[in-house]
Amino acid sequence: MEKIVEINNVTFYYEGSDTPAISSINLSINRGEFVLITGPSGCGKSTLCRLLNGLIPHFYSGKLIGEVIVKGYNTKETPTHILARHVGMVFQNPENQLFLSSVEKEIIFGLENLGLPREEIKRRLNEVIELFHLENIINKAPYELSGGEQQKVAIAAVVAMKPEILVLDEPTSNLDPLSAQEILSLVKELNREMQMTIIIVEHRLDLLCKHVNRIIVMNKGKIIYNGTPNDLFNQYNLEKLGINIPKVIEAYLRLKKRKILQNNEIPLSPEDFAKLVKREFYRVR
Amino acid sequence: MIAIEVKNLYFAYSAEEYVLKNINLIVNEGERVAIIGENGAGKTTLIKHFNGLLKPTKGYVKILGKDTRRHSVAELSRHVGIVFQNPEHQFFAETVEKEVAFALENFGYPKDEIEKRVNYILKYFDLQKYRDKSPFNLSEGEKKRLAIASILVYDPEILVLDEPTTGQDAIQKRKIAEIIKRLSEKGRTIIVVTHDIEFVVELFDRVIVMAEGRIIADGPTREVITNYEIIKRARLLPPQINICARLLEDLGIPSNIITVSELVEEITKVYER
Q1: How far is A12 from chain B (nearest CA, A)?
Q2: CB-based contact B5:B66 (threshold 8 Å)
Q3: CA-based nearest residue to A267, from B226, B266, B247
Q4: Beta strand pairing status for A222-227 and A214-219?
Q5: CA distance A165 to A5
């Protein structure tokens, strides 16, 4: 397995702060993983994201200890425009990311910056139009779009650049639930179909759990859990950690406590839950 | 007593099109009501009528009996505190402390009372460490809490919150829920605009659904949010628990349950049968 991200003993202080935003972080991520990072507000999730594409230390000044290696590049020594080819970044508020007069221009902009030939730009444009179903909005201006559509365009513009790693920092928090679900399914598709490595910061575990293969929980600048969703929910008191437990999992844990459900296989969606309840029910009969 | 009365309300920003169409609504004092609906459905436009920021094009809005067409925003704001979705639109003071103290100073509260209230609310929302910082330098989640704090601090009779839970972690969400419950026990009227269906299930007995400038449903939470056609029009997802219940209907689980406790009880019953 190719290690695509390696964070070795990293501590970072923003300028003017004497408490570190993150401290002694060690983390490695393999190509093709779908990793969820979660934790209470101010736990250092966004700081961790900013390390991955070199925003830290190139745009946010402060004191960085340790090293971050992305695709073999040490981020401290690599200019952000080089890192940007490998790490795509999507933020909470798409409005801050879209600034041109049409969706098409938004998508082409990044490709031109990569210095790609015209035919290749055209090819990639058509590819993301198809992948993200942008046919009907391609000539619209970003401000004419709904929040969900804007976020879709922001992701499409990044994906067109074909980064191996896609980092999303709370991409659905301004979206309605249906749009959020659509966006997350799209991200799952990128992971599955294109083997893109996904690193996503989210509070919405209800929509994400079923997609990810690893969850990282942060608290006060440290990683306090790094493993599968299954072990996390079986072992920890999550509400204390500031984590929204999906309702299906809450129901499962309560039934398990009553010894009605016996196994340790956490249902990550209502469908899983129903299957589990039925299976146990017919096994007992 | 009636807290909010909306009668045949139409509203248009320009002559071309009504954004609100024939809204009729009564909220009694002490009620907790959730308003749901997709972006652009008119929810925010509606709540802007509650403190007179917008005045009806046709029809009327009365707040505790006061017709908003004949009372100033300043006067109505004493009774109705509105926390808008984007907290930055609300901020103007140089520091977090001044932001929170502003309304109290404006309403002429004595100095020691102001200090007491400001300290309490900053501590409650875990903001005291930012006291001297600019509101604009806080994180998104903190900004939201500050916006809520700066309204709660003067304890209006009617509280309106636009998307209070966006971007909040479980701890902060629980705090917001607690404060809503507590204010409600004190008899305050609470209106919340939200996309967060679990928050609605936990806290609200009554739900109003808006679409395209109209109210398309207004009733008991259970009834409204288990109507999937309505939920879809509001661009929401049904509660996870209700999806589970429907998938388990053939075991005899009722299809209208919405809370974790109900589901756990029903499944227990089935297993013990």
Answers
A1: 18
A2: no
A3: B247
A4: antiparallel
A5: 9
DSSP B144-159: HHHHHHHHHTT--SEE
CA distance B68 to chain A (A): 31
Centre a 10 Å sphere on the Cβ of residue A131 and count the other Cβ atoms it contains: 16
**Chain B touched by A173 (CB under 8 Å):** yes
Q: Is A44 on the interface with B (CB under 8 A)?
A: no
Query: Residues of A with CB below 8 A from B166's CB?
Result: 173-174
Biggest CA–CA distance in chain B, Å, is 65
- pLDDT at position A214 is 96
Per-residue pLDDT tens digits for A95-113: 777 778 899 999 999 899 8
Which of left, alpha, beta for B254 (phi over 0: left; psi -120 to 50: alpha)? beta
Percent of chain B with pLDDT over 70: 100
What is the pLDDT of chain A when averaged over all its residues?
91
H/E stretch holding A151 reads helix A147-160
The number of residues in chain A equals 285
Mean pLDDT along residues B198-223: 95
ipTM confidence: 0.86
pLDDT, tens digit (0-9, with 9 covering 90-100), for B85-115: 888 888 889 999 999 999 999 889 999 999 9
A270 touches chain B (CB under 8 A): yes
Place of tokens 């006291």: B131
Counts for chain B of helices (H) and strands (E), in that order: 11, 10
Cβ atoms B106, B157 nearer than 8 A:
no
Model's pTM, two decimal places?
0.86
Q: A237-267: buried (b, 16+ CB within 10 Å) or exposed (e) per residue?
A: ebeebbbbbbbbbbbbbbbeeeebbeeeebb
